[in-house]
């Protein structure tokens, strides 16, 4: 409980500290899939996400994580995650951290835009955020109690190729992932696909919260593809999730996504929501503190 | 617990280092006259716009609300680097200079879409095409700054192309 409280306090502290520096994010609604857009240079986005998951044969859970996403340059975004979970009738535990980096190799826009993704994870077996599905991840993996799950420690390297296209207001993403547990486990594979579009393409000539262009809706599909020794759909889980984002003019973004398991190995429901805020002046403020950019 | 604190410390250190590195990159790119250098970079990129983009007319050129909508979008996405009145800043060039104001709308559209990624301007294709054209309508509505008798340019505040009947002003 203390760690969960610490996470929330840390997130809110950042929000309060940098509240005057805000800009309107134009965030796509995906929660698992990634598009090719980097965080704007010197912008910090603080995000909090929750996932409520049903669990057959054990207790349902609520997993949560906080992300700090920083645009180091226009071609490099770095992101730090802290995650935890509460399993009902069990306990609340801190489950670890992730450090993610995305690199844009091409200077200009193309029909298909690649981004390289590298992530290091230091998490324990109780991690249930399901931010990506890989290998033979199945629902029954989560059936044990938190004290038992916490015994397992994973140091994992995750590589992704993110492909993304934007055409006539639509965004299409195709992500493939390869993950390697550094404790001599085989490479595991997974995928995520998504499509989204704003409800209106033209901007409004008045300031408004509920203008149609502030709402972006779509869907994502993600799942595992087995591992090096048993590649394919056998013993894997898959999800389909409608997604929606509301980019508010005051700088906040709300996301909602009910995910539905597509086979018997999947959780029946993953109800996700998230709130985020972008602080476009963060890097500039730090630069001023360091005496650069006056 | 000790290991978690150590990891948090490392992560915080990395974040600080990456911020510092990014600022140094920008600073060394920019040299002694950062804004001027930025301006040269962006303007030289403008001249590289492919002909098929240059030839594109602004489809919203006759839309009376385009500049007003573009002003709101500009405030939301562009002022951090280009300044409240598009006068430029340490991070981005002035958009009221002759080279920008006289550029073809299609060339500016190309630059906004593709960014100048290696020099800090992100791609803005995540804004739908009509919104990018609305921003260009606004930039074009700014015009050149007035020239003072001493030859220096006077930057007037950004005009309000069409008073918006504000529902909930952001700032």
Please give a structural write-up:
The complex is a heterodimer of chains A (294) and B (171). With 294 residues, chain A is mostly beta strands. Chain A contains three helices and twelve strands, in the order αβββββαβββββββα. A twelve-stranded antiparallel beta barrel of chain A has the order 1-2-3-4-5-6-7-8-9-10-11-12. The longest helix of chain A is centred in the first third of the chain and has 16 residues, at 2-17. The termini of chain A are far apart. By secondary structure, chain B is an all-alpha fold. In chain B, strands 1-2 form a two-stranded antiparallel ribbon. In chain B, 41% of the residues are buried. At the A-B interface, strand 2, strand 4 and helix 3 of A face helix 1, helix 4 and helix 8 of B.
Principal-axis shape of chain A equals globular
Largest interface, C-beta closer than 8 angstroms, per-chain residues: A-B, 55 and 55 residues
Order of helices and strands of chain B: HHHHHHHHEE
Query: Helical content of chain B, roughly?
Result: 40-55%
- In the predicted model, the low-confidence regions of chain B spanning at least 5 consecutive residues are 21-34, 163-171
Query: What spatial form of chain B do the alpha-carbon principal axes imply?
Result: globular
Secondary structure tally, helices of chain B: 8
Work out the helix count of chain A: 3
Strand portion of chain A = over 45%
Proportion of beta-strand residues of chain B? under 5%
Q: What's the β-strand tally of chain B?
A: 2
Rg of chain B over CA atoms, rounded to whole Å, is 19 Å
Structural class of chain B: mainly alpha
Q: What series of H and E elements makes up the topology of chain A?
A: HEEEEEHEEEEEEEH
The level of helicity of chain A is under 10%
Overall pLDDT level of chain A: 91
Poorly predicted runs of 5 or more residues of chain A: none
Please tally the β strands of chain A and state the result: 12
